[in-house]
Give the backbone structure.
Amino acid sequence: MPPIAITPPAENETTTDLTTAGIKDALKKTAPSQLKSAALTDDITNLPPTPKTENGTETPLRELDASRLKCTYTTSPRPVPAAGSAEQASQRVCTDHMIQAHWTSSTGWQDPSLQPYGPLSLMPTASCLHYATECFEGMKLYRGYDGKLRLFRPELNCNRMLMSTNRIALPAFPPSELLKLIAALCATDGPKWLPRDNPGAFLYIRPTMIASDPALGVQRPNEALLFVILTCFPPMDHLPAGMNLLASHDDMCRAWPGGFGYAKVGANYGPSLLAQGEARSRGFHQILWLFGPDCAVTEAGASNFFVVWRSRAGVVQLVTAGLGDRIVLDGVTRRSVLELARGRLAAGEGYAGLERVEVVERTYTMQEVVEAAEEGRLIEAFAAGTAWFVAPVARIHFRGREFGVPMGKEGRMGEYTRVLKSWLRGIMWGVEGWEGHEWGHVVEEEE
């Protein structure tokens, strides 16, 4: 599978010309080092950087540079909430420190700082408050059973964040520098907030970029702020009875072809909250987002959605929506599930006593899922993402009718879901046999 691309795949020629031209211009001005990156598509390689002119002298804008990180440590450390407490579950408690880096169109990136966690200062006219010029990533810092702190494939998150910033006219940056800043924050606060005597715990990481430009005009922002925080977060995949999903109706649409569903921008989430809240009030965990008159299946809440069924030809398939229409997010957990399934479940005679699986990425409809359930071909289903991790699905409500999804022999999750989840957990938490896996990025701790 190719690396997460900085530019979206071309579809509509006119729109792509405008979008690609804007991305080229942004990269040339804000992060020329990324023009020849392997993550870039061919149409924006080998372009020279565009310098700025100041007093007749051409000088490039400063790029984000983690080696210039300035550290100011808190004098008022925050208490760590107890595991399983309401305080931890509130998702409002952050660790002692945060990362900040400011950018302006005249100078580029200022020196980043590691500083005490605290409020931001924004003018009421800030672009992000009016035009949704904001994007973010969702990651986790894990305390492994081998005592080490780990990130899970963080380079993919950093690449995707660059793609998201490009999509909404925010400044570019070298993804490797963002990763260094994230690791610095994790190394600083990880030892206290994820002590070695509490393996299997995690913190949620939220890298964010907002346009802080105080000009109210509808225009490309001239100021931006990058920040990274660590937040206490409860496990969300502990659902003994499985997830209940409410399929969306015609009046709900999360993303569409030619839009920005493939990017992790705030504008994707706000419009979905009303329907999400209503679904939860009716006893459902998430919305199963459908698209178009054919009810194509896309995502479950903010997670990617997978079904395991037996085709009418008798082949067991792991099916999820493809990326070609740019409707679903190229999730890091999604990508990892697919790679593990292709490497371990699709080869030979299967794995761990399971029948061999054919991995399929394509557009499929809710009617196909209903038919598989009615004909006894639906084997299991699950949602996968950073927040929910890998969560089995037990029931789906679609157009006035509800049907069950098999949950395996023990009634907790299907066997394919269980095996894939256990492999991912092994990598994330450094379980024996997985300690040195290349997807686990070990964070060197500050003692």
The chain has two domains: 14-74+87-231, 243-413.
